[in-house]
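Review session, final week

We close the course with one last complete record, chosen because it touches almost every idea we covered. It is ROK family protein, a protein from Xanthomonas campestris pv. phaseoli with 105 residues. Go through it on your own first, then we will talk.
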Amino acid sequence: MKLLFEIYNNLNKPIELKNSLLEIYDELFNHISLLIHALDPEVVVIGGGGSLAGNNLLELFQLGIKNKLTDSYKDIVDFKLALLKNDAGMIGAAFYALEQSLKTN
């Protein structure tokens, strides 16, 4: 995914590719918008491997999701990239293992 967004950025974000990416991610945008309406979050954090694509992915997600939100949500939900990117699961697992080892000692 990172390579795809590097190409997208290097080609100066052509509208044809942008529209294709919006179409590819449309179902994901639908589901995230439903979660936003149900949970009323202040921030949506984009993490995992996709977050390695950086701000290009974030911009695309903002556009795709905000188009599906009601007006009352469009300006109050913020989108951010996860600070730990794709390492959150590994760090969490290491922390859990450390915590468990301390309990047994």
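Two points worth writing down before the exam:
The chain has a mean pLDDT of 90.
The chain has six helices and two strands.
Good luck, everyone.
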